[in-house]
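Re: the pair you flagged

First of the two:
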Amino acid sequence: MKELIRLLVLLLLLSPRLPAQAPGAPPIAEERAKAWLVAFNSGDKAVLKAFLESYRPSALEHIDDTLEFRERTGGFELERAEESTPTRFAALVKEKDSDQFARWVVEVEPDEPHRISKLELRAIPRPAEFALPRLSEPDALAAWTRYLESETAADRFSGAALLSKDGKVVFSHAYGMADRPSKTPNQPNTQFRIGSMNKMFTAVSIMQLVQAGKIQLSDPLGKFLPDYANKDVASKVTIESLLTHTGGTGDIFGPDFDAHRLELRTLEDYVKLYENRGLAFEPGSRWEYSNYGFILLGVIVEKVSRQSYYDYVREHVFRPAAMTSTDSLPENDKVPERSVGYMKQGQGLWQPNTDTLPWRGTSAGGGYSTVEDLYRFALALENHKLLDAAYTERMTTPEAQRPGGDHYAFGFGVSDDDGMKCIGHGGGAPGMNGDLKICQHAGYVIAVLANLDPPAAQRASTFIADRVPLK
């Protein structure tokens, strides 16, 4: 039966199309787009390969990545066409296995056989016309429980999730395994690697020094790193542009990182590796995520405080927030409650992410925490235990618009989805994913951590954020 279905799908995808002038025939771009969607949604490598060979051969070398993406999303449902011409089709689509929407654009060559020249899927906030109905808090929590249990059973979630309302925890549960071979279950106090969520701690540290009058947001990088090799970067990049990812300082990941991954043991080691690199763009002219920018901020914390970055955040962020299970100790240090991260590799099997990890977490990311500690961090921010009210507001006020429609402040994302206004940060890398949403107006804090690939945690946090009451 499976082979018969495959044959029917192939015949549908590859049969000659009606002449362009035939009554009722869709424009060729729309036809190609929908045929690609059928092949992609099938999850069948032979079906997808046959389509790509005919209409998008350049994508054949990435077919395994495409199929992994299909597994992660469950495929897409076409919700609404926005544009349909002979050479371009644009539409709104939704992931089948989540609430995530995307804008889908397909362009085809004008000449036969009208191969696909562009195919883009860009995640967007859920459009207002497709807004989900808000539920009562008990109903939302019941729906979240069903979702997390279903995702865990499908092996798409493993981690911990917490929700608080007005300073009181109303949901805290863990799912899946912290260590699969030993069958050690995750617990609410299990420590998970948090990826880029460290950036919130770095931003708080910088703003504490600003509040103390030791740093000005307009200060150039070179004021604190006078020997920085690239003088153009040192003179043009400011503290503020580093905090908002508008400094043009680039990333740390790529061939250089891969070649030196275990040699990069201090923040200064990263600077030595990348300080000769020029600007990616003129500072302030646009937004582009920069892990290296937050490495530089960590170095500035060290120069100004005369402490290591790690000692500073322990003393000035973690301790006042009562975060007793958060740190960035080297990976070879034994941390008993730290989970093993699992990533999909090869035949779609979960494998430990050990060989992808840096020597230790940095001011840009890679530390570890618990959902309970992230909740305490949120409370400390809201109760001004880390910064006074004015500097907390300054740090979390939107500064730059990000692709997808939301905004970035100083080390914090700022979103407003269907009236649910939140600040926070996500983090993700192979075998790790996390998200913190501090939704002050509604009174909620959402913390989700996972020891699986993205978007395991971020899907879960978005699910509940879209359903709890606005007040």
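Second of the two:
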Amino acid sequence: MDMTGKSAIVTGAGKGIGLEICSKLVQAGASVVLNDVDGELALKAAAKVAGSTGTCVAVSGDSSDPAVIAKMVGTAVGLTGTLDIAIANAGITLFGDFLTYPAQDLYRVFQVNLGGTFLLAQAAGNQMKAQGKGGSLLFMSSVTGHQAHRQLAAYGMSKAAIEMLAKNLVIELSQYGINVNTVAPGATLTERTLEDGNYTAIWSKITPMGRPARVEDIANAALFLVSDGARHITGQSLVIDGGWTSTSPNPY
């Protein structure tokens, strides 16, 4: 998948799945704007993935802030003259019992997961419309948008809503040659999940394919969905979970 000459934005990409997506895009020749709320982490991550095949520059800040989004779009256009790909990967998980879940946590989850996705899609969509050559949007959902998880009511609701947004934008953006899709990872080995020493063993036992996902599993699917080979795929959500949602055993 040749991405030479294309520019992309990836939010929440200082580590984990987002960082791996950036790495795959750069390897394919794209110029990438890597966003993370942690400015130092963003700079280190961008330097790590920048290479001879493509470029990567950091834009730090809250991915749900319209000013930060505008800066990301402007930076991406400055790299190649156009914005071709926008990937709303940033998200937060705030666990909590439903009956005592704090309002501020609910609003923060919605602000980052929903607001950040919606506003990035809006800004990128307007830029792509003005360019007149189409583009690709990709959102990051989760298996928790398909199957209930204890203490994740707010998070799961936000992820299900993101998938509905992708479907709705088929009506809004297809006329401009913009396709919109979602990936929904299951259990994935990242810096955060590996902090739980039992994570790999638990999810290897209850995942039909015998292991949790690696970040490359998610990034490879993301790269395809924003490539020219997926231009006729839109409004879809791809679950990447080693078969877990087919059986859905509770990890707890």
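Residues 103-131 form the longest helix (29 residues).

-B.
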